[in-house]
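User: Small ask, check this?
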Amino acid sequence: MAVETTTFSNNSADTWFRDIMFDCVLCPRACHVNRLAGQTGYCGQTAELMAARASLHYWEEPCISGTSGSGTVFFSGCNLRCVFCQNHNIALGKAGRVIAPEHLEAELALIRRDAVVRVLPYGSITRGQKGRGELVDFGALAGEVVGFSDDGRGVQGEELMAEAMRRAAAVGKPIVAHCEVDELLKGGYIHDGVYCREHGHKGICSESEWRQVERDIKLAAETGCQYHVCHVSTKESVELIRRAKAAGLKVSGETAPHYLLLCDEDLQEDGRFKMNPPLRGREDREALRQAVADGTIEVIATDHAPHTAEQKSRGLAGSAMGIVGLECAFPLLYTYLVKPGLLTLEQLVERMSMAPRRIFGLGGGLQAGEPADLTVFDLDAEYEIDPETFLSKGRATPFAGWRVAGRTLWTLVGGRTAYATERFR
């Protein structure tokens, strides 16, 4: 693909966007972007969208295919959760990869070489991203990461998490927490609900998530640390976050499309329906929808977790945890939340783009005279989700065959084309 550079300007004569102008629905600054003959443009989606794995499992999702897939859905910045420190002190995740100091430069070199969108790493909280043991050197990592996360593992000890929060606050970075109490898991792998009991599976109780959210919010209040909860799946966690925000704490949270569109009543005996946290009950789904609508949950992230077909072929009990989501997140949410009136289009773009930028202090978006971060969609284009067309190497999604509206036409990152259909090449 040819690389093009576009500078955004309010002077339409200076930009590629010079025909039909409209107010960008994302930006309160009344900046303007070309309507592109009836299409719609938005500031590019940013961090907090992925949990794509790279590095250790490079065959599952190398940086180039993961970030190419993100370009198709308008993710201009992917926090390949620097727990690119995640899988072995180097994991690609949500708003960044998780990285230990000894792996940081290698990860940054990989990003510089291969990434098509911005990849913003997280540093791991504990060495080896184990959720216990020794904390990493927060000061050594702070300059290169957007936050600290052991994504995929909860930090088990209260005093260990308290000290992590104190160190994170000292360097001005958030703690981004996967909340899970190990002793409450008891070998479970799907939600401990009716489907689990009727089909003889082992369940994961909701308390395994919300109990740690409760603990961490208390610690955030004591330490003054900025705290963000990953992939919220339970109604109890929602209520805890709502109370924390009402109390003025620096607490935020995210959920994912599958928790907003599915529940455990939709489970099938198929690895495409297995992720962590698991699909919860109908009441949890409804609480999450309300929380996204009222702003209690400020971010929608994909928790993109690619695996090989073999790893996802062992049913609910034996398959690896995690599904892919980069290339279908926006059309799914637009079709099943915005079009029925559960969210406005402006709210969806805020949750997927502006809120992550604000929470993590990332800047970017659309500013006069700056290189453009934006995506152009055809919101009227209807099609079925076909995983075989994904640029991501992962194919496991519970949404295969779903009918959606909203196709990505063009993604600009830093003024350069990251993805384009034939029309924009």
User: Anything to note?
Assistant: The CA atoms of residues 299 and 314 lie 31 Å apart. The first strand starts at residue 21 and ends at 23.
